[in-house]
């Protein structure tokens, strides 16, 4: 058929998965187009996810740290918060990064097409220009773009509970990041990472929190012992932590949102909130791109199944990131994007090495950027037990870490799990300040097949929190005779 433009590779979606794929493919020599419906690149992560949430969490962490200083003999004044300025700061942070992406796309000669993309067949994509479209005649204009390969990186969106009324006081993570309401009492629906991160910000800014979680623990997926430490440290933020409990109804009244609960922790009466954050998970955008026109399989839930090379059931079409499955994390999307780009380039340029690229990460780390941070990677103790894998544990409590004590923050610990037979490390978790910055070392150790001796004999600088990794490994191989 006829097309308005033709490319070697078209990438649908400009998030971490999409831009990583587009940039890698361009670097390898392909002619690439990146289709994005919004005015900025970066997707959920840069615009309304990872980055703006961390900009706000940083401010909250500094405020919390300052309030702890009273115990050390240093008293700051009561903080006053100008939310307009804070919002401007957050927008400046995201603007800097999305602007950087636009410049990098230009430098690599990646054509950015501003519009909503949908599949026409296994070689063509329809792009309907959106507001602010660059280099296109007018809003609403439709063009057909031909591709030899397509990478779908259309991401996910927040799940909306159908029984919650339409009201500005009921928000998802995107709404919460806008900081339009200054609540005295806030409900977090869903006790996962996103809900607890946003809860941390609002609580530090003065809100009392309730959280409701359907499952028996907060931060499902994390090692239970890590969560316990987090919960103890954060108890003061909460009026009520409702576990094994569901939100079943809500009514918007002039003085607040009245929410009804059902389950183990449910209060009998509806509860009043100034702000309700829905953080009950994200749903993939697989059903919104007319994938069926190209014969691309999409599951009932909207995921697109792929093989280890990120290829869908259609040879010319690949998919990456949130749209292909859990965990829905930016670093997973980036790595998958690189694989898909390399396979496409390998096939189109006849490069046998690139052709063999595949996603074979052993583990993908998770981090809750709360205070303290909670980070984990690989197998947990509970999972090992369930799978019948015998583990040797190396536990290092931060009450024995000189640095943690000097920081006035020794509530955390570092835990490593080794396979009892092979002695290799198969999992680990850290709860404490900067846990997220340290979890990469455990991921590397797992990827490299390190054992407790490898990690224990690696010289870590003293006095650091990272030292706790070497100490935990020494505990596991039994040679720990002293602690600093
Ligand atoms: P997305 O980032 O969702 O990007 C998809 C892009 O495709 C979007 O820009 C969208 O506009 C575009 N698009 C979709 N359909 C079309 C179409 N038909 N036409 C044109 N364009 C289209 N992950 C972490 O690893 N660390 C964190 O700290 C973290 N924090 C988070 C905090 C919050 C509040 C949220 C919501 C998420 C967070 N995540 C975090 C998750 C992370 O944002 C996602 O895993 C990541 O953005 C997924 O990347 P992606 O490329 O698959 O898709």
What does this structure look like?
- This protein is α/β, with parallel strands linked by helices.
- Helices cover 32% and strands 25% of the residues.
- The strands form 5 sheets. A 5-stranded mixed barrel has the order 1-2-3-4-5.
- The protein starts with a strand and ends in an 8-residue tail after the last helix.
- The chain binds flavin-adenine dinucleotide.
- This is Dihydrolipoyl dehydrogenase.
- Its cofactor is FAD; (R)-lipoate.
Question: Could you write a compact summary of the structure shown?
Answer:
32% of the residues lie in helices and 25% in strands. By secondary structure, the chain is of the alpha/beta class. Flavin-adenine dinucleotide binds next to helix 1, strand 2, helix 2, helix 3 and strand 3.
